[in-house]
Amino acid sequence: MKPQIQIFTVCLLAAVLFSLNTYGQCTANAGKDSTFCVSIGIDAFYLGGSPSVIGGTPPYTYTWTCSYSILNSLFYSASDYLNDTSTANPLLIEHNSDTLAFYLTVSDSLGNICSDTIIVKFCSYVWSLEDKFVVINQGDTTQLYPGIGSGCPPLLYEWSPNYYISDPNVSDPFVSPDTTTYYIAMVTDSAGCQGYDEPFEVYVIPTGTNDHQIPHVIIDIFPNPLYDRSTIRILRPDRSELKIEFYDAFGRVIKQMRIIDNLTEIKRDDFKAGIFFYRVFENNIFIGQGKLIVD
Question: Are 293 and 226 within 8 A, CB to CB?
Fold first, then answer.
């Protein structure tokens, strides 16, 4: 009997050792690193694996942690981004302007501890509030630039329309349209997130000093060039208030005026010598443009 008892004891010990080896260790799974396009919204996303822990001895205790700060003055933790920091698969409830690292720590009933990390990257675009436009003479060239940035670099650009443009796939192409054209950039970042820029307005002044756009509206300035005084003449069917803006060659607003009458006087003292461009608006709607020469 003794040999049988010894064999049984050895087998029992091996089974216990195997059991301790199998259940005494645990492996945590925080989930697969992920990237989100914030500009198009985030679908329901749960952290953790399926399951979030393998091995060990249940029941388990889960702890999710995360630390993020802005200028060392605003501090955020996992509870600001997750609906529950003590569950195996918490729901992401808030996005961020930067990449976040979430740490999962799991402890089992025997005190064994295992951990894992998931990186969550947020790609979001930033738009400028600038009204991008430039006024050029017919035949001249100007350079575009985007008003959208950030995202997850590198960024790919696609300008449209592909009309008198040096390269529609660079951030700052040169254009030389022969008529007023609005160019729009579509941007795609490394995560595949897409964003559309606000139009870049290129106003083209054709040969001559007048370029009125709306039928039955006459817009001109005489005499032109301006030496001492000139008159803005705007003839239109109604007498609604108009606004005229003068720009220099760099697109900077030099002078703005409200116009009520058909004839409005401007003085040489309001301008330096050079070439200026003007645009006329009715209820903030563009109705015409032209060029003013000041001697």
Answer: yes
Pairing mode of beta strands 100-107, 61-65: antiparallel
Q: Where a domain ends, among 178, 205, 232?
A: 205
Q: What is the pTM (predicted TM-score) of this model?
A: 0.56
- Rounded Cα distance between 167 and 175, Å, is 9
Pairing between β-strand 229-235 and β-strand 218-222 as defined by DSSP bridges: antiparallel
The count of other CB atoms within 10 Å of the CB of residue 269 is: 8
- For residues 77 and 93, membership in a common domain is answered with yes
**222/243 same-domain check:** yes
Q: pLDDT tens, 187-220?
A: 999 988 888 888 888 888 765 555 545 555 778 8
Query: Is residue 118 located within the same domain as residue 146?
Result: no
- Distance in angstroms (rounded) separating the CA atoms of residues 133 and 251: 7
